[in-house]
Write a structure and sequence with these properties.
Blueprint lengths: L1 H19 L5 H19 L5 H29 L5 H16 L6 H7 L4 H8 L4 H9 L5 H15 L5 H19 L6 H27 L7 H15 L5 H15 L3 H30 L2 H4 L6 H10 L1 H13 L4
Helix pairs in contact: 1-2, 2-3, 3-4, 3-5, 4-7, 8-9, 8-13, 9-10, 9-13, 10-11, 11-13, 12-13, 13-16
């Protein structure tokens, strides 16, 4: 019976996504987002633990509150209460909140950290498609909102060392790049989203597989460690990752349209993101091979944090070198 319910809710979820792609009405897309929300909650409830149920309750409450604000905007615009020049900005901010983009991302992090891995993958993939498509259809580049969003996520990501939290904040970072890519005609944003989602899904599956192996072994195999490291580097956009070339394309268009500050902030975010990835990978590997004796290693260890900050200073310089030669692409 549970598999039948899972199939029903997954089909409902995919139906809401596909239907929204052919909609030109804001109200209809809002209805599809609500259908998408209900189907996701139903799908995740089929196999859930106590922590997952609390996370789903928080997710449903936050999304319902966002939907109320969304509906208020439509009613306010129809009654001419909200000026048209502010309506687009307010809708963009609400969609940012719905996507879990910074600075409205705290609820997103607290929900995602408690979800099981299946709901985790579904959340950063299918659940983001309708809001992103809505954002694309009404797109106006609010540069100050984008800069503030990027800087907010940078502050949160500096000292992240847990693997799952790094993956969550990676999703928060990616929204800024996707939003920036919408300035171009066509569907570059969708290409970026699909490439990012596929790489991240493989990354999560490798991590889950390794966690299950570690239940019977205290050591991380060399192949698993290298695979996790390579997927993280692909997510960070290190060449020859497809994300690297997509980021170069986005940056070149932003510079050509005189959004120099936005391009600089996004480039800085990529450097910090790589720093965060390296922190979480090394922390994960050190836990696996039991290297605590080297640095009296713990998550809050000042010595460990100082060591990693110094070690990745060279990595930051290397990334700046890559950024300097990117103008030649």
């Amino acid at each position: 019976m549970s598999w039948l319910l899972s199939f029903f809710f997954s089909m409902m979820n995919l139906f809401s996504i596909l239907t929204s792609f052919y909609s030109f009405s804001g109200m209809f897309m809002w209805l599809m987002m609500e259908l998408n929300l209900v189907s996701f909650v139903g799908l995740s409830m089929s196999n859930m633990s106590k922590s997952t149920s609390l996370a789903l309750l928080k997710y449903f409450s936050c999304q319902s509150l966002i939907s109320i604000f969304f509906l208020f905007l439509f009613v306010g615009s129809a009654a001419f209460i909200i000026p048209d020049n502010y309506l687009n900005l307010f809708i963009t901010m609400i969609l940012f909140c719905k996507l879990g983009a910074a600075p409205f991302h705290m609820w997103f992090v607290s929900v995602m950290i408690k979800l099981d891995w299946f709901s985790f993958i579904w959340m950063f993939s299918f659940q983001k498609l309708i809001p992103l498509f809505f954002l694309f259809k009404l797109y106006t580049l609010w540069s100050m909102l984008l800069i503030f969003s990027t800087l907010s996520s940078l502050v949160h990501g500096l000292l992240v060392m847990k693997m799952k939290k790094a993956l969550i904040l990676s999703s928060v970072f990616s929204i800024n790049w996707i939003y920036s890519s919408m300035i171009m005609s066509g569907y570059l944003w969708l290409m970026y989203f699909l490439v990012y989602t596929i790489i991240k899904a493989f990354m999560v599956m490798i991590t889950v597989s390794d966690i299950s192996k570690r239940a019977s072994s205290t050591h991380l195999s060399l192949s698993s460690g290298l695979l996790i490291f390579s997927y993280f580097m692909f997510l960070a956009g290190v060449p020859p990752s497809p994300i690297f070339f997509l980021k170069i394309t986005i940056l070149s268009h932003l510079v050509s349209m005189d959004f120099l500050m936005v391009a600089l902030i996004l480039l800085t975010s990529s450097i910090i993101l790589m720093f965060m990835y390296m922190n979480s990978v090394v922390f994960y590997c050190c836990q696996s091979v039991k290297l605590y004796w080297m640095l009296s290693f713990s998550e809050n260890s000042y010595t460990a944090n100082l060591f990693f900050h110094f070690m990745y200073f060279c990595l930051i310089l290397y990334t700046l070198f890559l950024a300097s030669i990117s103008n030649y692409f």
